[in-house]
Specification:
This protein has about 500 residues and is an all-alpha fold. The chain contains 21 helices and 2 strands. The chain has 2 domains: about 270 residues, Farnesyl Diphosphate Synthase; about 170 residues, Terpene synthase, N-terminal domain (Glycosyltransferase). It has a two-stranded antiparallel sheet. The longest helix is centred in the middle third of the chain and has 32 residues. The protein starts with 7 loop residues before the first strand and ends with a helix. It comes from Arabidopsis thaliana x Arabidopsis arenosa.
């Protein structure tokens, strides 16, 4: 996502068409060089992708598939699914998991309430686990299943149940008012448990899980990072299944090897674009951009999608830095116009650094358009072009605000900021790459879910950066608008989303 960090000014020559043009004062963010040099990335290797390991993974997958099909107890089935998800290997068993959860959901619909075997773990743990898994997989289940066991009268001794409820509460919707309130109650009790059991060895694993969840709930964590962490934790459990653990370790290394190869390819692409060489003011963050793509979808089957999404991230970052740091207002207005027209024939009107950026943008968007047309049969380029034009228009408005000294009110800032967050553009590209739906839905990306997501990210980013000294005036405006009280309110609001 665009991040404004311009901090000082310096003077350098413009990419002029004639040597007689005067020096132009331009800003610099003083971005640090990338920690991940291209040569280092190319040197990365992974020795785990060997034929005997591949055969072993195939055998382990067959064993786990057999477990999923033969496990009889409903609670045991749900726990197995949850473990597979946390270990990062559930993508191998999507059909089996869908079948199990569909059966669970059908039973709930028929009985109008949960019928889990409650004798083993207790009502709260089992019910919350089922609720979370069903919602994670898109099934409809109401908060009524908790039968009032989510209030102040929680049993402090049932930490496993309280933790399960805490995790489930983060999948609440706007109408789940009671479930939202439990975040406060469960958090309070979990913190007390952590404090009281500092030196309790018997509760070590559970305490570690609680601390981890309090730092950030499972629903909000990045899958690959969570899998790496949980593999270690799961290996320390007394009830650990060695088959699941071995599969998780081997699979993690296999997937990591795939990601390393993709990153090498992307690093080569990034170097060949020449953007960091000729636009030395932009952020050189190809590794960070790729990591963001892995956070969205890590599965091996999405290799092409990850690479295209990373390229989109890097182009957004580059263009954002042009508007935020380097370009003059005249250059930015011209660039915006040419992006709106998508007119390569006007390339010579741009300064050299913008020529390279615009041509790279056109080439990559055309490549995505070709991929979608070839595989899905419809042309998405007009919609992609429109999204880039809209985003550049909002970048231009913010540049005008800065250069004129204008300070927008909060409503005006957010009206522009949800688009300048780049979320609508990113989600549109993701939709085009992943969805098989027709063009009808692409006519407008001003859908409530897109706008809400963009607004949350915009505000969350501003909350994180408003205390930092920024050269961009709108951020000073936001800092003034976000009093401590408002900042606290927004922080609590995000916790319930």
């Amino acid at each position: 996502m665009p991040k404004r960090q311009a901090q000082r000014r310096f003077t350098r020559k413009t990419d002029s068409k004639t040597p007689s043009q005067p020096l132009v004062s331009r800003r610099s963010a003083n971005y640090q060089p990338s920690l991940w040099q291209h040569e280092y990335l190319l040197s990365l290797g992974n020795t785990y992708v060997k034929e005997d390991n591949v055969e072993r993974v195939t055998l382990l997958k067959q064993e786990v598939s057999k477990m999923l099909n033969e496990t009889e107890g409903l609670l045991e089935q749900l726990e197995l699914i949850d473990t597979l998800q946390r270990l990062g290997v559930s993508y191998h068993f999507e059909q089996e998991i869908k079948k199990t959860l569909t059966n669970v959901h059908v039973k709930n619909v028929r009985a109008h309430k949960n019928r889990i075997d409650r004798n083993r773990w207790g009502d709260l743990y089992a019910t919350a686990l089922e609720f979370r898994l069903l919602r994670q997989h898109g099934f409809s289940i109401a908060q009524d299943v908790f039968d009032g066991n989510i209030g102040v009268d929680l049993d402090d001794k049932d930490i496993k149940g309280i933790l399960s409820l805490y995790e489930a509460s983060y999948l609440s919707t706007r109408i789940d008012t009671k479930l939202k309130e439990t975040i406060y109650y469960t958090t309070k009790r979990l913190r007390k448990f952590v404090e009281v059991n500092k030196n309790e060895t018997k509760s070590y694993t559970l305490r570690r899980m609680v601390i981890h969840a309090l730092e950030m709930p499972y629903h909000r964590r990045v899958g690959r990072l969570e899998a790496r962490w949980y593999i270690e934790v799961y290996g320390e459990r007394h009830d650990m299944n060695p088959i699941l653990l071995e599969l998780a370790k081997l699979d993690f290394n296999f997937v990591q090897a795939i990601h390393q190869d993709e990153l090498k390819s992307l690093s080569s692409w990034w170097s060949k674009t020449g953007l960091t060489k000729h636009l030395d003011f932009v952020r050189d963050r190809i590794t960070e951009g790729y990591f963001s793509s892995v956070g969205v979808m890590y599965e091996p089957e999405f290799a092409y999608h990850r690479q295209m999404l990373t390229k989109v991230f890097m182009l957004i970052t580059t263009i954002d830095d042009i508007y935020d740091i380097y370009g003059t207002l005249e250059e930015l207005q011209l660039f915006t116009t040419i992006v709106e027209k998508w007119d390569v024939n006007r390339l010579e009107e741009l300064p050299n650094y913008m020529k390279l950026c615009f041509l790279c943008l056109v080439n990559e968007i055309n490549q995505i358009g070709y991929f979608v047309l070839r595989d899905k049969g419809f042309n998405v380029i007009p919609y992609l072009k429109e999204s880039w034009a809209d985003m550049c228009t909002t970048f231009l408005k913010e540049a005008k605000w800065y250069k004129s000294g204008y300070k927008p009110n909060f409503e005006e800032y957010m009206q522009n900021g949800w688009i300048s967050s780049s979320v609508p553009t990113i989600l549109l590209h993701l939709f085009c790459l992943l969805s098989d739906q027709t063009l009808d839905i692409l006519g407008s990306y001003n859908h409530s879910v897109v706008r809400s997501s963009a607004t949350i990210l915009r505000l969350a980013n501003d909350l994180a950066t408003s205390s930092v000294s920024h050269g961009f005036t709108t951020y000073n405006t936001v800092n003034n608008l976000l009093t401590d009280q408002r900042r606290l309110y927004l922080s609590k609001l995000f916790q319930t989303k």
